[in-house]
Amino acid sequence: MGKTAFIFPGQGAQYTGMGKDFYEQIPVSKEVIDRASKATGLDIPALIFEENEKLHITEYTQIAMLAVEAAMLRALEEKGVRSQVNAGLSLGEYGALIASGVMSEEDAFCVVRKRGIYMQDAVPVGGAMSAVMGTDAALIEKICEETEGIVSIANYNCPGQIVITGEVDAVNRAGEALKAAGARRIVPLKVSGPFHSGMLVKAGEQLGHALENVKINPFTVPYVTNVTAEYVTEPNEVKNLLVQQVSSSVRWQQCVERMIADGVDTFIEIGPGRTLSGFLRKIDRSMKCLNVEKVEDLEKI
Question: Which residues are catalytic?
């Protein structure tokens, strides 16, 4: 019998009203979102259910996404659904940490609130990200290395979709070189900075200080880290990996391939949108992928 993985999306999948039906209909989900408000001092229901500009600003987006993902996770667990491994894309890794019992909800909410602020504040002028469509990772890595300035891979999302990050001019130069080398499309992303690049090392260092007094619990379920695309089983590795994750590549495709190699054949995406399900279809169409985004999805699962 195959294994089940819970997977959690990252920043960019958010929208106004996400999780509202869980908040209104499922007591355990309401409790989670209210705990996020208490832990951070923010009015999380107002942030995610009412039209506002803050939801799409990094320092608010991250805590909003995590609160909703945790609320949906607890509703799913209440139905008796369990995973054998967890993973998340970038910010979504904190959803995986909660699901694996590594970090308490309250600690995760406080850390992610600070993570969003540090990443927003550390964003230097002149940063950019672009999605590269239709070429292989080795070529992208080679061109990034050969391009003058700071540019590297931010996300290995799936075959045919890789995101580059760094200085605006360097990202643009790399994009032109990739087009000349046969890349199908280069799509500039509407983001507020060069996330998962060396330009955010300072934000990672600040996060390290925020993590110093956070308790890391023994794993109830292992998780796969974005940094190495390998299983993490030792609690003492967690904090250092979370610090590195801010400025290192997100190896999402490799994370999924690692879980498949370990016998996972069912993935449950927990959170708004179906971004990870789309990636999964391009990584391995034979895998089953289910989504928890609306209350009615709980019954289907």
Answer: 90, 196
